[in-house]
Amino acid sequence: MLYHTPTKMVVDTELEEAKAAVLQLMNEKDKLEAELQAAKNILDNNRVGMTDVLVDSQGFPRNDIDVYQVRHARHKIICLQNDHKALMLKIEQGLHKVHKFAGGGSQPEFPSTSSNLQEVFLLEPFLRVNLVSPGSPAELAGIQVDDLILEFGSISNSNFKTLKDIGTLVENSRYKNVEMKIKRGSNTFALTLIPRPWSGKGLLGCNVVPLEAVER
């Protein structure tokens, strides 16, 4: 006598298989991100980013960095970023599949798949915080002395020209959220700053200075 597998049992099996597939992809993501970080560390150790020039004023390879190592690391980062983007798409598709098999209810619990590593690799610090006043909007936002600013609202290393750009943005953002990305040691944070009058001077209560290329 033939027995047909109940529909629920089939769905449960498919759900478990979909979960296992996503978890495997997440493990691959962790390994890939570790490789990305290792490559980024090479650039950090040489104090260069993805766009800094590797030749001196006379067109010769710079003697203060390992040019071969930096070029290799840059190439690897670009390749890994592309792999990371494709992998995150697969994870997203896998999670949708899991959600479908789960009956469209609450999302199954998985380790976080959100990663801003790819974005961070494309950002270079361009400002350093050298003063934060107690009780200021900057302190309340979580900004600390020696934080490196990767992004200040719409301003990043790619379009920053002078501190006047920051001043104009701040003045036009009174009582509005200014999204920031900062680098503190080896960690990167997203903060929200709200420029506003307070008991001290200015709208922020902090001071920033442009980074020299050698500091990046």
UniProtKB/TrEMBL annotation:
Q: Which residues form the PDZ domain?
A: 85-186
Q: Which residues form a coiled coil?
A: 15-42
Q: GO cellular-component terms in the record?
A: cytoplasm; nucleus
UniProt entry keywords in alphabetical sequence: Chaperone, Coiled coil
For the keyword 4Fe-4S, the answer is no
Q: Which InterPro entries match?
A: Nas2_N, PDZ, PDZ_6, PDZ_sf, PSMD9
GO BP terms: proteasome regulatory particle assembly
Q: Which family does it belong to?
A: Belongs to the proteasome subunit p27 family.
Name the record gives this protein: 26S proteasome non-ATPase regulatory subunit 9
